[in-house]
Amino acid sequence: MRGDAGGGALARGGALARGWVLALAGVLGALGAGAGCEERAGVSPAAKKGFGEACADGAECASSVCAAIGGVCSKGCRVDRECGAGYVCRSRDDGPDGVCSKPQGRAPGEACMTAVECQHGRCLHRAGALDQPGHCSAYCEGADDCPAGLKTCEEIADSAGRKMCLPGEGGAGTAAPGARGKASER
Q1: Whole-angstrom distance between the N-terminal and C-terminal Cα of the chain?
Q2: Which residue of 11, 17, 23, 136 has the fewest C-beta atoms within 10 A of its own C-beta?
Q3: At 83, is the secondary structure helix, strand, or coil?
Q4: Residue 38: is its pLDDT beyond 90?
Q5: pTM here?
Q6: 8 Å CB contact between 142 and 123
Q7: Strand, helix or coil at 136?
């Protein structure tokens, strides 16, 4: 992965299925400073905060995870439904999974130029059209995980083996016309 010059968005280069390029929001540190498992002096395990409680770093949380977006004690996730109502599964730049965060930014399906603009930290562009607006997207396991208009849930090559919500109205192999093509690197 490498950052782009326009604001910290990250992308993985490589050939893409269906002609889409994925840009991931740079969420390095999305777990907050000190988010590892180490104990912070003076904070007992019994005093740690639970999921959804405000935090400044992971040492305050029972899970050791403080989401940088929204500043709440969090947990890892793969899709939104694992987070519960009022939260989205936002991408991390250190692996294919995400962290439950408060939704900030544009919803899946809305136009974007960079991943940092999107609630889920994922902005898809058509291959070869990186200078044109793309759309915010989310990881999915099936069409039910995707909003109307993005009901095609398919893997693209640079999504670390994960499926993404793509334009279309459902099922594998039903992406919107023009979605197929050669990939570009970002």
Answers
A1: 9
A2: 17
A3: coil
A4: no
A5: 0.66
A6: no
A7: strand
Query: Taking the mean position of all CA atoms in its chain, how far away is CA 144?
Result: 17
* The pair of three-digit structure tokens given for residue 162, joined into one six-digit string: 């994960």
- CA gap 57, 153 in Å, rounded: 34
**Residues constituting the chain:** 186
Q: What is the DSSP letter of 81?
A: G
Instruction: Report DSSP state, residue 73.
Output: E
- The two most distant CA atoms of the chain are separated, in Å, by 58
CB atoms within 10 A of CB 76: 16
- C-alpha dist (Å) from residue 180 to 8, 133, 134, 147, 163: 27, 17, 15, 21, 16
Long-range contacts of 130-135 (CB under 8 A, 24+ apart): 130/21, 130/184, 130/186, 134/21, 134/23, 135/108, 135/109, 135/110, 135/111, 135/167
Residues 6+ apart with CB under 8 A from 127: 16, 19, 20, 21, 181, 182, 183, 184
Alpha-carbon gap, residue 52 to 113, rounded angstroms: 29
